[in-house]
């Protein structure tokens, strides 16, 4: 059986050199190369959706692939497609890089300039490993092999617009419909999910910040299983510890949650950090919550422009949710859409704080009256977004095929922060 090899190389000269050598390998079947990390993940996702047997046995990643750095891309591929063996092609064949590549999930490393014998030996070894893994999976191993669950971030145009309440209710709606759901509090300094649900916790997202290999057991130890069934990964009790969650750690954590849950809802709060920037960039759907008043809409516009400048997300790829809406409000959703340039959720959340106040003060927002207009609207929003079983098809049409797992947003954010901008 021929070995299918997928090169992931951004440089045209390197593509020609690599594909020429690969075509000379015995029993090798090189497939059309991909030019960047986005194309690679999308290609593997499409093949995995058909069958694990459709995936190539070997993926060869060049060190200059982009926009996601090669090691981060390797980790992403290894996490989502464990039956695919990855080889890193690099000019740095030092023991340090070799160890780092292995830690990130690579199965081999080939030094530049390429030599036939070394490349043939690595490809053959990795292909045999991949075949063995697939034989094990075919025997009934319960190993995740898909592209992962749906990630939705909820950010606020400013503080107090209802970001946390929206995130909590979206997660509850998804879980109640029968989809395994995780709720991550990425409002690292002022996260209030624990208070909204009246829970005491020992572990938080900070406990995962320094772990490179977040296994299912490690993840299970960090999450808090709420009575509703939602898995909670909470912000630290001491806000200053939020700085320990870097953009890189955030990508690892979101990737681990995505690989274990069908729906991951992330409360990003109203402040932008490297971690929240990475989460918004990775998300399938990024929500921006605003209220229909001048200050909040101005904040929404400011946030959208900042995301665009930092290459986190374009305005048209963001969905604005209007909270505390009433027909008599002077600023209507259509006007907010024109001001921000974003899409507007068809579902608006009515202004009716009276039905929320008791549950919020008691920390029991999961017990909101099902007949209440606010809860009904928030759960209708979950259905509109495809988070509720049976609504995925309609929501899929809203998505634009964004890359999952890129880090350009967080890197740009960190650069500007270091430059003092």
Report what the structure shows.
The chain is of the alpha/beta class. Helices cover 43% and strands 14% of the residues. It has 16 helices and 13 strands. Helix 10 runs antiparallel to helix 16 (408-418).
Task: Assign the structural class, choosing from mainly alpha, mainly beta, alpha/beta, alpha+beta, or little secondary structure.
Answer: alpha/beta
Total DSSP E strands: 13
Radius of gyration over alpha carbons? 23 Å
How many strands, which pairing sense, and closed or not: the largest β-sheet? 8 strands, mixed
Strand content: 5-15%
Please give the alpha-carbon distance between the first and last residues: 56 Å
Instruction: Specify the overall morphology.
Output: elongated
Write a concise keyword list for the protein shown above.
421 residues; alpha/beta; eight-stranded mixed β-sheet; five-stranded parallel β-sheet; 16 helices; 43% helix
